Protein 1
Amino acid sequence: MQEQQTEATIKDMKNEPHMPEGLATMMKSQGYHFVGKHSATKICGYTSDSLKGGESCYKHRFYGIRSWRCIQATPAIGCNLACTFCWRIIPEEVGFTWNELNVVDKWDEPEKVVEGLINEHKRIVSGYKGNEKVDMKRWNESNDPAHVALSLTGEPLFYPKMNELLAAFHDKGISTFVVTNGTMLNALKALTILPTQLYVSIQAPNKELYGKITRAKNLTATWDNFLSFLNYFSTLNTRRVFRLTLVKELSMNDVKGYVELIKIGKPQYVEVKGFSYVGGARNEKRGLSYEQMPRTNEIKEFAAKIAQESGYIVTDYHEKSAVALLCIDKKAASERIIKFKK
């Protein structure tokens, strides 16, 4: 009996994602590290750069997070949308018919997910110790993560134990930045513990473009649910952010549409960001091109137009990420830098 229990425990701890082996292999080749059945982490380029004394990400500039102490992760690999600009691999596009909405038979416990993500993050950054370019003070701090961005891939609100997951991170003094696609209204309503900062991705300014970009299977139902999500989102007592991902010749032609969504969601912060022609976005089936990435002046001009129409304040800009920050008022602008654990 004791041997059976030990064997079961070992099997349960293995990082074996519930997905086709070929898809898992492709993701591993892109730098994904799996944790349990449905979670994953991957080192962010800015985490890597900042460890070597280089530039930190726009969240460092805008909100004060320390990129070298940040875990980029997800508690749910699967997603219910297939956004054209997304960097992730969409299974159907590479020959897999895997149902992402039915990824597991039993969800991993929150404590296991948190410990697994932290341990895997430490394992990843351990490889930087021998790099002569690495700032050792930052490397030591990277082994004590202070932030987690649940934004890597998939839809994090699929994870049904999000309250416990957030609590487990917060108990360790780790701030939580959650990015959702705005479709999981019931999951949002079920949150009694809120992340440090909650993002909703604004994929398009109107229903027609939303359908074209997200490729939602039931456009009317998904769009209506998205609007309801934004309405409820506006009531939440946490730092709320809209992230607009802009694609030239596709989603940069309806300022008033974006402003109407901003009026519904009432975020304190709006990030106006250009899409990146990387990863899955390069798949020819998406129909995008390198030339559709907005240039610095185009992002700034579009952000200024949104500010003019919405009354928000253009507050900052991060050149490398091609993202502008708008704040709802001067108070939000003055409070954008968060006080995190030391």
Note: The first helix runs from residue 2 to 13.
Protein 2
Amino acid sequence: MAPARLNLVEPRPSAPPLRRAKPKRLTLVVPCFNEEAVLPETIARLIALLDELTARRLVSADSGVTFVDDGSRDATWDIIETAQADEPRIGGIRLSGNRGHQHALLAGLLNAPGEVLISLDADLQDDLGAIPRMLEAHARGAAIVYGVRSRRRHDTVFKRQTARAYYWLLRRLGVDVVADHADFRLMSRQAVDALSGFTEVNLFLRGIVPLLGFPSEIVTYERNARFAGETKYPLSKMIALAANGVFSFSTVPLQWITIFGFVVALGSVGAGFWALGVRLFTARALPGWASTVIPMYFLGSVQLLAIGIIGGYVSRIYAETKRRPRFIIEKSI
């Protein structure tokens, strides 16, 4: 089945003012893992944002924030509980263990209240100033609004280049993703309910959400530097997430293996005829170590690469067939 095509339109600055309908209840969903250094500032800014949005009648007064503690080992949950005792608009979900960012985010989306949900990171790198524009796009009829980074000046050159190459690769493999979009997005309740029907264990929400097919828009923003603490996405986790994006949404690598194997087989047959011709019609045939070892190592490496790619698919099939829970909620406030 061909991937769904997104209708992504950047709102025009000269768009006419919107006729305001009844404000909807908004919930900001914020996954957290060992974020004690930044969380107090995040809470203060998000509550101030809710006050502003409520005053502008962009959201209803019962809007709030749901923090999802992904099995943190520091004081993250204690900070959430203390904040909730002082501010009723704050809610919290504590997972029984560290399940990873994508599973924590899904847990928040499926369990948080609200007619509109916006997911964002706890490190304050996502621009809160883009949220009013997201809500306006939703008021125009978009069920999903993607926050897309217009600039990545706070990222290293290595991260910028690898991210650009990765999105290019995904598109070449037929995966319908929004370039330079992470998990900063608005989703309507209808879209979240549809998302609950996707039951795979190997989560790559950046690929799943476009498959929902609802009307979508993008809002561009400039990503900020992390306010405090350390990144929770080191290179190893980035590679694992990238692999999920490929193996969960494309079978093209398997086709590449078949094509490459066919090409190598043709080359081997050609090399065989060449060696036979040298042996029968010339006096240059000499027994050599290179002519034996080089093809052996080349074919061996091709076989290992093919087995590795096939293993990537098989391991994910194995995880899916066990049907284990994607997350377990230990406590909710």
Note: The mean pLDDT is 82.
